[in-house]
């Protein structure tokens, strides 16, 4: 089992890699003059997904936070009514 410091470093490294991959995909790749058969283009999905994927993840995350919050508020108010 990894310690908390090691786990934090792994999570940070993954976040940095994902950030630079996304940044290259959205900010640099559209302005590069590459033909469609270039191997660099094969590493990335079409650009339309660059905005759809973060939106879907954002909605899922916000929905999860909302469900989590509503559940705990509901359980707190339920427990205070008994007392």
Automatic annotation (TrEMBL):
Subcellular locations according to the entry: Endoplasmic reticulum membrane
GO MF: enzyme regulator activity
Bilayer topology term: Multi-pass membrane protein
Record key words, sorted: Endoplasmic reticulum, Membrane, Transmembrane, Transmembrane helix
Known role: Regulates the biosynthesis of dolichol phosphate-mannose. Regulatory subunit of the dolichol-phosphate mannose (DPM) synthase complex; essential for the ER localization and stable expression of DPM1. Part of the glycosylphosphatidylinositol-N-acetylglucosaminyltransferase (GPI-GnT) complex that catalyzes the transfer of N-acetylglucosamine from UDP-N-acetylglucosamine to phosphatidylinositol and participates in the first step of GPI biosynthesis. May act by regulating the GPI-GNT complex. Regulatory subunit of the dolichol-phosphate mannose (DPM) synthase complex; essential for the ER localization.
Family: Belongs to the DPM2 family.
Subunit record text: Component of the dolichol-phosphate mannose (DPM) synthase complex composed of DPM1, DPM2 and DPM3; in the complex interacts directly with DPM3. Component of the glycosylphosphatidylinositol-N-acetylglucosaminyltransferase (GPI-GnT) complex composed at least by PIGA, PIGC, PIGH, PIGP, PIGQ, PIGY and DPM2. Interacts with PIGA, PIGC and PIGQ.
PANTHER family the UniProt entry points to: DOLICHOL PHOSPHATE-MANNOSE BIOSYNTHESIS REGULATORY PROTEIN
Name this protein carries in UniProt: Dolichol phosphate-mannose biosynthesis regulatory protein
Species whose genome carries this gene: Drosophila albomicans (Fruit fly)
The organism's taxonomic lineage, starting at the top: Eukaryota, Metazoa, Ecdysozoa, Arthropoda, Hexapoda
């Amino acid at each position: 089992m990894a310690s908390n410091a090691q786990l934090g470093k792994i999570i940070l490294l993954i976040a940095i890699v994902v950030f630079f991959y996304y940044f290259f995909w959205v900010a640099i790749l559209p302005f590069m003059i590459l033909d469609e058969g270039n191997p660099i283009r094969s590493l990335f999905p079409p650009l339309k997904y660059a905005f759809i994927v973060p939106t879907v993840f954002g909605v899922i995350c916000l929905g999860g936070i909302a469900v989590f919050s509503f559940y705990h508020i509901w359980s707190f108010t339920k427990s205070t009514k008994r007392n």
